[in-house]
Amino acid sequence: MKYSIPEEEETKRNAIEASIEQVKAGDIHSYQAIIIQFERQMYTYCYYILKNHEETEDALQEIFIRAYEHLHQYKRQVSFSAWLYKIAYHHLMNMKKKQSRYLNLIEHYKEKQPVAHISQHEPIVYELLAYLNKEEQHILLLKAVEQYTFDEIGEIMGIKSATVRKKYERLRQKLKDRTKHKGEIIRGKIAGTNGIH
Length: 197
Known about the structure:
Blueprint: H1 6-24, H2 31-50, H3 53-69, H4 80-98, H5 101-112, H6 122-131, H7 134-145, H8 150-157, H9 161-193
C-alpha cells in the first residue's frame, strides 16, 4: 500500500503535467520523466495480467508508445495516471483477445517453466487472480493494488462507477467464498490424516 503526503502527490502531479505540456510543445525528451514516473507501476499491472516478463516488457513499451502518440488527446480533467491506465487496460484486453490457440499452448508451456518471483505472496495472488475473469482481475488490481477510486476505475474501463462498485463487491465475496472453501478442504485433509472424522 502506498502512503504519501498530499503535498508530495500534488507536486508529482504538477511535475507530470508540466512534462506533458513540454512534450506537447515539442520537447520529446521530457517524455522520459513520464516514463520514469509510471514505468514500475505499469509493469506490475501488466505482469499480473500477462504473467510473462517478455510479454509484459513488450506491452509496456507499446503502452508508452501509444500514450505518446495520443498525448494530444489527454485532458487534465482526468488524472494522467488514470488516462494511462485506460490505455493499458484496452491494450491488455486487445492482446488477450488476439491470442490464438497456438499462443495459448505456448503460454501454458511457459507457465510450467520456473519464473522469478515478484514477492513471497505471488503463488496466492496468482491463484486468486486465476479464479477471477479478466474484467474482475482488472477491477481488483486497479482498486486494491493501485488504489484508484470507483470513479477512476469506471473512467479507465469505460463503465459506470456504480457498476464497478457492484462488480468489486461481488468479486470480493467470490474471493471470500473461495478462500473459505479452500480452508475447509485443507482442514478436512489435515483432520483426515490425524484420524479425526
